[in-house]
Amino acid sequence: VEDKLSELGIKVPTPPTPKGNYISCVRVENMVHVCGHIPQTADGNLIKGKLGKDLSIEEGYKSARACAINILGTLKLEL
Questions:
Q1: Which class for 59: exposed (0-12), middle (13-18), buried (19 or more C-beta within 10 A)?
Q2: What's the CA gap between 23 and 70, in Å, rounded?
Q3: Which residues are CB-contacts of 5 (< 8 A; sequence separation ≥ 6)?
């Protein structure tokens, strides 16, 4: 998986310390529950807004992608 991500030019970040009173993931047997991830880009910018009002469809896609990449970072650290 890491080779494919690298081939696609995706750098999986080391997850930041949670900014609230929560745990970013919980592992139970063969399942991992993730929570509290935000659409923060690699350069630290937070993507904010409501799709269709503040963000275009393309910006919404980028926001979801940033969040998914951050989740991969948490999973990489956990697993």
A1: middle
A2: 14
A3: 11, 12, 72
Q: Is 40 exposed, middle or buried (0-12, 13-18, 19+ CB in 10 A)?
A: middle
Tokens of 60: 């919404």
CA distance 64 to 39: 7
pLDDT tens sequence across 13-28? 998 777 778 889 999 9
> Mapping DSSP to helix (H, G, I), strand (E, B) and coil, where does residue 42 land?
coil
**19-23, 59-63, 72-76: least confidently modelled range:** 19-23
Q: How far is CA 21 from each of CA 31, 36, 65, rounded to the nearest angstrom?
A: 22, 10, 25
d(CA 59, CA 65): 10
